[in-house]
Amino acid sequence: MNWSRRLLRLLAAIMVLQTSRAKPREHYKKDDYVLQCDVKPKNKTGMERAMRDMPKVQLELPQSAQGDYQHMQKMMVKHQEKLIEQQKTLNLQQVRLEARQKSIDRKQSELVHMLDRMYSLDVCQTCFQNEYCATDVEPPICLPCTICPPGFMATTMCSRTKDVQCMDVNECDMNDAPCNAPGNCINTAGGYFCVNEVGSCGSGYYHNVLNMQCEPCSRCMEANHVLKPCTAFEDAVCSPSLIKHATDFWRGHVKTNMVEARTTRSPVTMDPSRLPIDEITIPTDTFFAAGDGDRIIFKRDGMIWVDYNMAIKHTCPTYLQISAMVQDKLVGSTRFEATKRDIYSAASFSGAALVEAGQEMVLALSSAYCPSSVSYFGRPDIPDDPAPKLTEIANLELAGPLSILYASYDAGAVVWRARTRQNTNAGKYRVEYEQPRLSSDGYVISLPRLDEVLFQDEGIVKFSLAQATFSAGEPCRTKGYTINVKLMKNSGLLRTISRQFKRGQPHTDILLRASGAMLVSQGDSLIFDIETDPQCQTRYGDNTPVSALNIMWLPTDYACLMMAELQRGVRWSGAGTRILQFGEVLNTEPDSIKAFSSGFLLFQKEGRVSLTYSQKLVHSCDYLKVTVFYIAGIPQKHTPVIQTVIGNTQAAYEGLQLVGTFNVQKNARVYLQLTCRKGRLDNLVTGSFGALTVVLSDP
């Protein structure tokens, strides 16, 4: 065994082992065995010389050990053969594993596709009749089946996952030739053209004098919605509501192609510059009239609720302020903080007022610190003016419109307005009020305490709070401001209705805003708690009337309310466009307003809709746009009715608000769409930080 160990050590130490020829047996004993090592390097000649001079290494083993050595060699050879076989087996198994992994990946991909398909089918379960499930968008949504307009015909029917396909009708190939001479007929998309023939369109068509071709007459949803029938040269005029109501609705916007716009330096908006206004919709009653392009005239006594979304770019060192004023009295106001030159500053406001016949409302633009200066729009020949100024007003496709809801005294509504008190506080703060400046019914809405608004009757409450602030300290920027809208029930229970956010900017005048709607019972109170960092020293209020709470109360037999929050469990990030989805929190009339998980709202009766949406978010887009789309009529078109934008938030959370009022027909649909331009949405905070309220009032 000792010789075996020595042999193993020798075999492990040498690089090449060769068995040399044995010398003549006579020189050795019987049991001797001779081994010789020969290492051959690259330099063969030098090595041969060294080998001649080096004594040979000889190892004498007893003859009895030779058998052990040979047996060990055979065992090593067998072991190597087994290792080779095992390596071949491992290689074969590796190939099989790779094939199985590819099969698993393929099946996993199929499973994901099946799960997506199952989710799509699950979403499609919520689709109504005359709807199809659009599975080519993320997430899948229910969309109304297209109704082919006059001049087109359906080539395929609407199915569960496919929309109707419409094809143009070739009127010129019909048996009843529409033109006097068949050779004079030229087919066009949706219509036709009669060469050298004017006013000879067939039944159901009118002659469009702008393009000199026959086009199909518009079809109103109901016969009593026809304000003006179709004639030979004019299309039909439809109205979404009847001319018999105690309310009215008006929409307009500020002109953005004006040659110049000036701002005044007065911190109190007593003599501001008036903004030119364009009327969008024709009123369905005689409550409004446009006057001189910069004012709205009220033709009856009553009360109004004003909503406006606006976005601008300006270079003023602090803020610009826009206000709605009736007879020099402030109705509602908001401020646009200073931003970088190429970033939109967006803001919205709502306000309430009592009006009399003949009174006028104007929009006024002013600034406490921006010098009067001229801003030019669409004038490339005018060089850039380095003076602080208003440089751009976003057009209606990005922000707007100005909307006014009028209610006569027959509607039973109540309006209320009170300015907030000036205060200085650090950390949490509860908003306090002065005695109300406006109150159409002091019993229904009252102020028993400085920080609580009391309601003495059940109803739907629309509210809008504006609170001017000036803060000091970096913690103000880090924590920002959260406005907690709370309802103190008559039982003493305090409920948080929504939470609305505003980024802090130390040593800067900013305006905190909170808007929405809620259901109140007798004895309930409305409270606003503002939360910020305990080290953030803040002055609340200033010498202007911008800080105020506006309220409109509506009886429950006249209006209904739907409250919802941004859907949890959804990844609200990414680029492009997507539809916002909400989870219903409260619905006072489910038969009138239906909310679906796809994000669509269905209105099952006509009326006036007041919508508010508040959101805490962060994004890197050039601008992020929120649009409310309205679907109704024949053909069913997706029409934007409210929109706003918010510029790049610079990697910090900011708050967005969208407010507006519009008319709805029976079976109309509404949805909110988010669009990111050149960038990505980083996050939308769900729950009460993404609150949607919809008030549907009778027309």
Automatic annotation (TrEMBL):
Signal peptide: 1-22
Positions annotated as TNFR-Cys repeat: 126-166, 200-238
GO cellular component, one term: extracellular space
Name of one Pfam family that matches: TNFR_c6
Statement: the UniProt record of this protein carries the keyword Signal: yes
Disulfide bridge map: C127-C142, C145-C158, C148-C166, C217-C230, C220-C238
Protein's UniProt keywords contain Phosphoprotein: no
Protein keywords: Disulfide bond, Glycoprotein, Signal
Classification via SMART domains: EGF_CA, TNFR
Any GO MF annotation of the entry: calcium ion binding
Name of the protein: Uncharacterized protein LOC118405978
Organismal lineage: Eukaryota, Metazoa, Chordata, Cephalochordata, Leptocardii
The gene coding this protein: LOC118405978
